[in-house]
Amino acid sequence: MTDMIYELNALDRNFADFIVRESGQTDALFRHIVGLLSNAVAHGHICLNLADIAGREIIIDGNKVSVPELKELHRHLSKMPTVSSGGEFRPLVMDGKERLYLYRYWKYEHDLARIILDKASSTDETLDKKNLSEELNRLFPEGDDKAPDWQKVAAVAALRKKFVIVSGGPGTGKTSTVIKILALLLEQHDNAGLKIALAAPTGKAAMRLKESITAMKDHLDCNDSIKKQIPGEVSTIHRLLGTISGSTRFRYSGKNLMPYDIVIIDEASMVALPLMAKLALALKQDSRLILIGDRDQLASVEAGAVLGDMCGGGREEFFSPDFGKLFTDLTGSKIPASAPDKQKYPLTDCLVVLKKNYRFHAESGIAAAGRFVNDGNGADALSTLKDGKFPDIAWQETPRPNALKNALTKPVIEGYGAYLSAENAADALKLYDAFRILCALNQGPYGVEGINVLVEQILSERGLINPQQRWYKGRPVLITVNDYNMKLFNG
Q1: What is the pLDDT of residues 37-63, one digit of tens each?
Q2: Which residues, 6 or more positions from 317, have their beta carbon under 8 angstroms from its beta carbon?
Q3: What's phi and psi for 160, nearest 5 deg?
Q4: What does the alpha-carbon distance between residue 157 and residue 354 come to, in Å, rounded to a whole number?
Q5: Following DSSP, what letter does each residue of 342-371 receive, concatenated?
Q6: Residues 277, 248: contact at Cβ < 8 Å?
Q7: Which of 95, 245, 305, 488 has minimal Cβ neighbours within 10 Å of its Cβ?
């Protein structure tokens, strides 16, 4: 069996020493386990799965450590005064599935699961089915495909449940689906003045959602009174909850609930467990929570991939016979329905994955490469990109560092020349958005820093910028720290 190798940092070791001292112990094994837990959280996990290390010889900081079998390890940890099973407040929690948590992450997960399961079990039986059928067909015109219209399925799910996840890859119409869901909810509630909040995890994601809604709203096939009620503003989740200066707490919490009837979170795959739990705790009991995101990308930077855990790649969607019948009654179409054990699949009818791509065809090279990537098949993905069989994909070998500037000159001039020559800031921003150079690295000749230097050199030599001035005309500015007084936010 291959050795499992762990490198702890100073924080991991100091935290482990602290917990061991608080336990009144001098137990080396316990110190190692606590250090591994701290290390796991630093790498984006919310717990340490004891089954992964039990009965194995692992290497920690170059030293071999023999870990006892799972039952013995469980007994050993249970004796520690700093470990509980969750019924009382102690620094560490070991749950019934042999997972070790820091207490606050166990509490976050426990609170979030309780709220999500409560909303998922609630079904709205007050739908005006006669009007809803007409509204669905108006907002989601019938297509030619024999396959179910998954956007329409998502809409019915969002109207029927207090909690829904709408997932899908780029180009599957997640944003347009959300806007139509809002229109349906407003029409179903007969202009009842629903309070709606739209948010995203970052300022950039919030701005993108706002731009999409502004562009799409006027084209909705509904009354102007409905369009006016669809919010034009999108905030970050932190702003939605109300950031308190100098504190990790928010203005809205379990003791001061948000006033919204509907809360929609875009790019939800980027939201880590702590923030998602705090958001859920601040929701009213009867409010709807709709999460939008691609389950196959953009995992959270901090600990806890909430969207991925709830609808991980490849996980099957389950629809109950009741939901299938409702969808058929409303649309005349059928969806695959099953009768899973609701205790085992509590998110039945709450997860919809949009499958049709409106940006590229299912038989295109991009789609083929994407499927291989999602399946973890790197060799076939690379072969698809290189073999030249697909007209929508072109493979270009990366030039050597000394030839990179010549290779970039033409696309940089063509891509950035127009925006740098714009007469006003609004036109410049619009033109700037039309061209991007993406880098997989931060440093080095092929990284962000190196490429930025080359781009400035190319543009300077053509007289398009004057890099001798730090804030030359046309220089893009990225806000890295929020300034609430000036209403400037990161991204």
Answers
A1: 999 998 888 899 999 999 998 999 888
A2: 351, 352, 353
A3: -90, -30
A4: 13
A5: TTT-TTTTTEEEE---SSS-TTSHHHHHHH
A6: no
A7: 245
Q: Minimal CA–CA distance to 260: which of 236, 277, 280, 274?
A: 280
User: For residues 162 and 347, is the Cβ–Cβ distance under 8 A?
Assistant: no
Beta bridge partners of 123: 161
d(CA 108, CA 276): 8
pLDDT in tens, 414-441: 999 988 988 888 888 888 888 889 998 8
Alpha carbon distance 456, 412 (integer Å): 10
CA distances from 486 to 44, 203, 211, 248, 479 (A): 33, 15, 21, 21, 12
Q: What is the pLDDT of residues 328-366, one digit of tens each?
A: 888 888 887 676 666 667 888 899 988 887 777 777 888
The answer to whether the CB of 292 falls within 8 A of the CB of 263 is: no
N residues, the chain: 491
For 110, the token pair is: 């426990």
**Measured torsion, CA atoms of residues 476, 481, 487, 491, in degrees rounded to the nearest 10:** 50
Q: Count CB atoms within 10 A of the CB of residue 6.
A: 18
Contact 167, 353 (CB under 8 A): yes
